[in-house]
Amino acid sequence: MASETTAAHGAEGAEHAAEGGSLVFHPMDQFIVKPLFGGDTIAWYTPTNVTLWMALAILAIIGLLVLSTSKRAIVPTRMQSIAELAYGFIYKMLEDICGKEGVKYFPYVMTLFMFIVTANFLGLLPMSFTTTSHFAVTVVLALAVFLTVTVLGFVKNGAGFLSLFWVSSAPLALRPILAIIELISYFVRPVSHSIRLAGNVMAGHAVIKVFAGFAAVAAISPVSVLAITAMYGLEVLVAFIQAYVFTILTCVYLKDALHPHH
Amino acid sequence: MATETTGAVGTCVDSHGSAIGMPQLCFDWFPNQIFWLVVTLVVVFLVLSRVALPRIAAILAERKGTITNDLAAAEDLKAKAVEAEEAYNKALADARAEAQRIASEARAEIQADLDDAIAKADAEIAAKAAESEKAIAEIRAGALESIKLVAKDTATELVTALGGKADADAIAGAVDARMKG
User: Fold this and answer.
1) Is residue B13 part of a domain?
2) Which segment of the chain is annotated as a signal peptide (chain B) (predicted)?
């Protein structure tokens, strides 16, 4: 359904270009949120292309982690190996950074990683809608991490959590200044955490669309297609690396909540 | 179809259906995105924590257990193989020693038999030799007597032929004296 609407939209974009008679770029149109079943208003409950692509992400995760392991084979099939690799990858990351106490938060961290990585890769399909390119999505993810870490830090350590901002290894005179810097950097965390993910994904997708706009000119279309191919390869890397970065930063922040002392 | 589904025309989308500015900053859409994101995260979390992660953990644990068991079994079998080899070597050494013992026993027996036979033969030879010596001595004694007799007879005949009177005792004494000389 979404592909139909996007296709329809793409056709319309082409019409615009024809009307204008010159190069017309709409690199940001791919990020427009649309109702799935027509209508003009987008209320909080309206099923939109966001709903569709998040549902596809859920299905992909179920296919990858649940269906592939349904045989519970001792000698794994390829798909089961992927599920086991993903599990081991995040589990080891969490254990290495947070230690044994961090392991009980594994389902939360795994949820974040699996959602981001599948959403990123689904966003690489042509005509798709990339949910992780929206600040609304990544900010909620980052704020969830930020609030969890802050609450957990105070619950686990009480006022001792504030020692995170009091660098005891620095000279006494410097400590208040450092405390202010640490405090600011602590509150900037969710901003950088969310904008890094959405910004990377959005920029790559927009650049591909810009190159695609140039492909309409015969003289430069081979260069344009080559550039799209190269960008796409880069985007595949970015899709994984950004999910990885988001997850590893989550682990690092979680470590601060569990062990606030420098 | 195309015109109906272009979506909400408003502050974020112009009349052609293109984005005005960054769609990421369109606040009208935030509640919708946030709502569906929360729904998605809850579903993913439930699927992972209830089904996927326990299952994968069980598979990994089972595999680890299987590998550990197999390694232990392999270790056992290896120890058994070493044991069997030792038993084999011991049996081989025993058999070799037994064979050697039997061979030496047989050799000793044969040697004893041989020694017996040799001793018996030696004794027989010695007896035969003594007998022969005795016979030879007898023959030698017999021959001396015969010579004496012939010499006496010849002497008597010679004395008679020369016209003497043969004195048997004198002749016998003369012959004996000559024979001794």
Assistant:
1) no
2) none
